[in-house]
Every structure is written in C-alpha cells, then in structure tokens.
Amino acid sequence: MTRPAFQPFALEEWQSRHEQGVDFPLADSGVEPVRLRELVELGADLDALLDLPLHYPEVNGTPALRQRIADLYPGQTPANVLVTAGAAEANAIVVAALANPGDEVVAMTPSYPQVEGMARNRGCRVRTFGLDPDDGWRPDLAALDAQVTPATRLIAVCNPNNPTGRVLDGSEMTAIAAAASRTGAWLLADEVYAGTERTTDAETPTFVGRAERVIAVGSLSKAYGLPGLRLGWAVAPEAMIQALWRRHEYLTIAASALSMALAEAALAPDVRARLLARGRALVRRGADVLTAWVAAERGRLSMVEPAAAAFGFVRVHTGEGSLALADRLRREASVLVAPGACFGLDDHLRIGHALYPDRLPEALERISRRLT
Hints:
Number of helices: 13
CATH topology of the largest domain: Aspartate Aminotransferase, domain 2
CATH architecture of the largest domain: 3-Layer(aba) Sandwich
Distance between the termini: 47 Å
C-alpha cells in the first residue's frame, strides 16, 4: 500500500505560526488561564510543591490523580485511567492503537480535526458524518448509520463540540453509542469541553457507560483554565488502557511531575467546583458579548448560539473565504481568528470569546471595521 502524503495539522499550524504576534489571539479555544498564584490560593499546597522532587513520576499517572479522574466517571477505577501530556497525546495514542493502514475510521465533522488528520496520515479510509449548520448543528444520524460498516474500527466524536459549541442530547448520544455497538467499533469521545456549559450548571454527560468499547478523553486545558499544565487523560476499559500505556511510553514516557501535582490539587472536589464556576462565568460573559455583536452585524454574520465552549462558530455572509479573511484580519487588525476552512467550512470563523473578557469588544470592533 502506498504511503499517503503527509497532511499537516492546518488548524494548529495556523495558530502556532501567528498567535504570538497579534494584539488579540482569538483563535485560542480556552478561557482566560488561571495563574499559579490563584491555584495555590484555591487549595494547592505551596510547601508540598516546593518540596516536590523533580524526578520521573509514575508513568501512567500518580495514584491520587488517577483516582480523582476516575471519580468523575461512573463505575471507573484508577485502572481505567491513563494520564497523558494533554488531550492531544491521548487522541494520538488512541489512533496509534486502533487505526491501522486500510482501517475504516468514521469522524464527526466539523470537529477538532486531529483524529481525522492522523487517521488519514496513517492510510486509513476516513468517512464522515456531519453536524448541520441549518439545523442547529444537529448530527446527521442517518449519515452516521450509512457510514458505519462492519469494517469500521473507530468512530470519533467531540462533545461538547469544537468548533460549534453544540452539546449532543441524550437520544443523539444513545444513537451514536448504538452505531458503535452494532459493529463492534470503538467510540472515541473527546469530552474536553465538558464543564463549559452556558445555560446550565449540569456537566455534559460522558459517553462512558453507554457502550462497551468507549474511550473518553479529558483535559485540564479548557473548562479548568489550565492549558499550560499540558495534562490530559484517557478513560477506557482496563485492557485498552494497557494498550494505550504501551504507546504512551514510546511517545512521552510521562506527563510532568509538577503538572500531576498541580492537577491533583485542581481536581480536589472543592477546588474543581470553583475552577468550573470560574470558567463558566467567563464563557457566559463572552458568549453574550459575541452573540450581541453577531446580531448587530445586520446580516453580514450569523451564528447558532453555542450551548458550551469558549468560542462561537460564526458564519460569514460577505462572500470572502475564511482563509483570506482570517489572514487579512491578522495583518490589518492584529486579530487572530481560526479559519473555518481548517474545519472544512470555508464560510465560517471560530472566534474565541473567553480569553480576554475586558478586551473582547475592542477586538470584535476591529473585525467589524474590516468586513467587506
């Protein structure tokens, strides 16, 4: 089989090339980050951190951290948890474990495009099922059923969704889990935006427990405001965790000892509740500003209001493609947004709204002045 040409990760390339050189990096997908001082004040033990030996930690994650993560999922134990260097590593080792050349992978679109891109780079046959922008970003479940076959090895979803902010309802989750169970496929659920809900304090339910072969991926980067820790995890049946662990040893060996210690503090029940409340407040404030701005653009822009996440996926009706517009905004307005083309929809922009709450109106005004 001919090896496919390498497909760069267009979204992350766009951000890594440009996000440090602009006044307003609104391509970012998280909330305003927590400062280390804030985390210590919330409950991290500073003396214990200062006395922490900076040696290799437990490769699969410290027992205390894996217990705190397991407690977030029904019926799970530390043996069902692998701590990784961010959700990105968790997604990567799942693809490495399950998606071999020639295998079928079914991916939700639009979605965070990492899994789809890695599967294509491995020579997989990638099929997709869409979220419909004209139907509130509801998933096309008929398309899912048509795409999933006995040859499907992996189904990848993102809930709450990046870039749309759509949260699947219970019947949709049941249908997706059933599609995986019917064919014996593994279901990879990227759940890093759980906890960023806009209209409720109830966390988005996990896919864990809805089918036998589920791998849930989480992270401290989004709802918790701790992206600099680069701390994520996978939750799965124990045999799958062992398979992922073997690949983790090749890729990173372990997440950092300091990040694990800080993650233990962040996931203490009382600290976790306060971090999520902080993140939701930023999401709600920013979403209200973004929604009002889109409405004021009088038809040049539109948006399905996001139910969660720290961004909106804004449709542009001016006719200018997202790559050209995003590049022009970067150069002329010093505002960086994520082109919808990176998600397969060239008439959209993903605009982060929870990173610089006090400066967001100025950034949006700069965009307005340059819309054609």
